[in-house]
Amino acid sequence: MSAGPDDHAAMAQLGIDPGEFVAVDEEGAFLEGENAEVLPPAPVLAVVGRPNVGKSTLVNRLIGRREAVVQDIPGVTRDRVSYDALWNGKRFTLVDTGGWEPDARGLQAAVAAQAEMAIRSADAVMLVVDASVGATTTDEAVARILRKGDIPVILVATKVDDDRLTADTAALWRLGLGEPYPVSGLHGRGSGDLLDVILEKLPETPRDLFGAGKGGPRRVALIGKPNVGKSSLLNKVSGELRSVVHDVAGTTVDPVDSLVELDGEVWRFVDTAGLRKRVKTASGMEYYASLRTQAAIEASEVALVLIDASEPIAEQDQRVITMVQEAGRALVLVFNKWDLVDEDRRLAMKRELERDLVSVRWAERVNVSALTGRSVAKIAPSLRTALESWDRRIPTGRLNSWLADIVASTPPPVRGGKQPKILFATQATTRPPTFVLFSSGFLEAGYRRFLERKLREEFDFTGSPVRISVRVREKRGRKS
Length: 480
Hints:
Elements: H1 5-13, E1 23-24, E2 30-31, E3 44-48, H2 55-63, E4 81-87, E5 90-96, H3 107-120, E6 124-130, H4 137-147, E7 153-158, E8 180-182, H5 191-201, E9 218-223, H6 230-238, E10 256-262, E11 265-271, H7 284-299, E12 302-308, H8 315-327, E13 330-336, H9 343-356, E14 364-367, H10 379-391, H11 396-409, E15 422-429, E16 434-439, H12 445-459, E17 467-472
Helix pairs in contact: 1-11, 3-7
């Protein structure tokens, strides 16, 4: 986001030299220099494979630096970790994942879920197999899953430290993923050829994760505690029986994808299992259902959180909403079973909203009855409002003009005997809208909340979370 003429005027108004500040990256970091530019998003390569096949060692070799943690025991990597890579002048992102075992249990199931999420968001996948062991039943199971996908797969035989194992890699053709490429992450053998193959497989630009602007349906995660009426609502909006409905809580376990036409627009609804317990304390089927629900939220653009209006707002309701907030997704609160709400319950609910949902006052709210169809037609407009806010970008010049007026009328509180000065502001990203404030000193949390409230009043981010980050700029020494 390079500064333009309007931005320069706003920067001068706030006392910052346009020659010093030119751009920020997506995280809001300074890009110094007169010719600084924001680099476009890079395509993503997910690195997957069973535990201890040498994925992290290979990642370190490909990125040309030792960043991924490597240890001679299985299961060191658990979460998805992203690394920037550069080869022949082209940038791409490597995502290192934990050991993927499709039938894993316990902690390994959570690790496997992270690997599956990485695959869904990648532009290509690299399956790493230990050439010294050969293809195991786990490797074959992973290959079967990858063959069903629609993204390129690169098969890599690692730990090929000398010519003795090169011939053995030919046996990996039977995995049905094409030519296996022998490499040694430890010694670098074959890594240059592999990097050439990676650039051939990856697109020039990353695919659009959500399909917005390309005619694809927007993704809606339908979530809530058990038996709140998620499947009933999905059946009502779709006009047919898409999900099993039963009085017994927890009927839905796997997320159920449905293309639904609502108010003249096609949406992709994902009906998820009800979250009964925390993931760490859940067991058996509930544990895996929780993992899949988390993955559904991550893959969605907007979450429809169903709350039983006939009962007090529960801890599970608040926990589900917190999951959506932490994922940075747009939010619509749907109070179901409104046909069971009387006047006393309405008064009680008003108090509960003020007490328990104060952190999401910005969320869209709809009162419906999945049983009778009451106000179901209002869901689509609320979804559109939330997504428009989630996608909204504020021009830098307009943002800083507004900020100058706010700071003039309500300056930041004094801290340590000094009053911080907000030098400049910019919107680093959308989805969700993320703003970066460059300041001469620390800004109190209360003042940041004040600025968020004023942002919402001025620019209307109804239905979307808003994130504000403060970057304190150190004073530069005088040039001699």
